[in-house]
Design goal:
Arc Repressor Mutant, subunit A, TF_FadR/GntR_C, single chain, WH_DNA-bd_sf, mainly alpha, 231 residues, DNA-binding, Four Helix Bundle (Hemerythrin (Met), subunit A)
């Protein structure tokens, strides 16, 4: 019989506790000694298991003392998905064009099915206003760009869609940054992207899913063509 690894024991325990309502997202795990005894694993094995689950986005370690310390249950599956896709890209089992096509499918579906009432318009406009700063480094712009697109996808009220969008952004962040640095006129590109961002948002606010889907597809295809033409 296969031996259950420590991180699987911890994950199974967390899953069962969540399902039973004994734990919720944001709760802290029991003290290390208590949890190790509960699960029948050594404290060293438990620590390694917690590190694995933290990399998977299941847990987050909080440094400090007293109430602010401990290991917190989180919900960040995009971290694990993004890492897995990044490894697939690095090993050439997956190509950037596969990510591009997947992003098209995900995001056009998300914006076409969005509910304008679910858009955090003020927060999204704050992102866009920050991205208007011509002195913002490319890396900062691209980070906010990724957050913008994930924020739009949340309006579809499908957490799997927004999680996958976040994972895709994580997986290709380094690749996108490298290609963007090669563009001959980044400021011109940034201004065009911002016009397109606002056009997509406008269509979504107006509840025109078809126009939003068309605009976001044109936006993604245009940037992909531009960056890959210069690569």
């Amino acid at each position: 019989m296969a031996t259950t690894r420590a991180h699987e024991k911890v994950l199974d325990w967390v899953t069962s506790q969540l399902a039973a309502g004994q734990l919720t997202i944001g709760d802290r795990l029991p003290a290390e000694r208590t949890l190790a005894e509960t699960l029948g694993v050594s404290r060293n094995s438990l620590r390694e298991a917690l590190r694995v689950l933290e990399a998977m986005g299941v847990l987050q370690s909080a440094t400090g003392s007293g109430h602010n310390s401990g290991t917190i249950i989180t919900a960040a599956p995009e971290q694990a998905f993004g890492m897995a896709m990044g490894l697939q890209l690095a090993s050439r089992q997956m190509r950037p064009e596969h990510i591009f096509r997947t992003r098209l499918l995900l995001e056009t579906a998300a914006v076409s099915q969005s509910d304008p009432a679910q858009l955090d318009v003020a927060a999204i406009n704050d992102m866009l206003d920050a991205m208007d700063d011509p002195d913002m480094p490319i890396q900062g712009f691209l980070r906010l760009d990724a957050e913008f697109h994930v924020a739009l996808s949340r309006a579809a009220e499908n957490p799997l869609l927004s999680t996958l969008m976040g994972a895709v952004s994580l997986a290709i962040s380094d690749y996108t940054l490298e290609l963007s640095h090669r563009l001959p006129d980044w400021q011109a590109t940034a201004r065009r992207l911002q016009r397109e961002h606002r056009g997509v948002l406008e269509a979504m606010v107006e509840g025109d899913g078809a126009a939003a889907s068309e605009r976001v597809e044109r936006h993604i295809r245009g940037y992909y063509r531009e960056t890959n033409a210069e690569a």
